Amino acid sequence: MTRLGARLALHLVTDDRLPFDRLLEVVDAAVGAGVDVVQLRAKSVTAREMLRQARALSDAIDRRCLLLVNDRVDVAVAAQDAGARVDGVHLGQSDLPPETARRLLGSQAVIGWTANSAEHRAAARLPRDGTIDYLGVGVIRPTSTKPDHPPALGVEGFAAFAAGTDLPCIAIGGVTESDVAALRDCGAAGVAVVSAICGADDPAAAARALRSAADATSLEGVAQ
């Protein structure tokens, strides 16, 4: 079992298009409704501002779920130094290597890695025992939150990808509530969403619906 254990089913990736005060409200509501992981993604702000946001999110979450920082290992380290509860990072292919993140953040940190090609999957098989906890795989469908996304995999493409790795795979990119059961049925350890919660009129209700859909499919061995 990974450091995440079974806490993989529902990830909320933050949307930096929202005013941060509103984002805090969304996160608080979504975590109360059953989100397992919040990932701070803030590509348009300075490192100092992202550190401020990480500390504020840590306070808002108050240990109710995991908090990961997207891309910026330095911000995760700085937030921990400042006393924030940051549990790890999610890294893209152009970020610091997962091995470096593991050395800097320690053995108990959670480290996710974006993967969407056969080459990425092969790289994840390299001698990295205990380095990578899960793969973020997508996009599933075209999405406005990532305009430079690779070709969409769809559910079938995700299934083929996940079948080729022993690492837990999280489906991301354009995922809606109606996709969750099919993705879980074909091997997804969980789903990650942005707009499905951040863009909802009622973020708590949206999170509860996604949580219910994720829990409705019981996959023996998922997140093991």
Short descriptors:
single chain; 224 residues; alpha/beta; TIM Barrel; 8-stranded parallel beta barrel; 9 helices; 8 strands; globular; disordered C terminus; magnesium; Thiamine-phosphate synthase; thiamine-phosphate diphosphorylase activity
- According to CATH, the homologous superfamily is Aldolase class I
User: Order of strands across the widest beta sheet?
Assistant: 1-2-3-4-5-6-7-8
Determine and state the CATH class: Alpha Beta
CATH topology (fold) name: TIM Barrel
Distance between the termini: 4 Å
Task: Summarize the structure in short.
The protein is α/β, with parallel strands linked by helices and 224 residues long. The chain is built from nine helices and eight strands.
Write up what this structure looks like.
Pfam families: TMP-TENI. InterPro entries: Aldolase_TIM (IPR013785), ThiamineP_synth_sf (IPR036206), ThiamineP_synth_TenI (IPR022998), TMP_synthase (IPR034291). 4-amino-2-methyl-5-(diphosphooxymethyl)pyrimidine binds at residues 39-43, 70, 114, 146. This protein is α/β, with parallel strands linked by helices. The chain has a single domain (10-216), classed as TIM Barrel. It has helices at 20-32, 47-61, 73-81, 98-105, 118-124, 154-162, 177-185, 195-198, 203-216, and strands spanning 10-13, 37-40, 66-70, 88-91, 110-115, 134-138, 169-172, 190-193. An eight-stranded parallel beta barrel has the order 1-2-3-4-5-6-7-8, surrounded by eight helices.
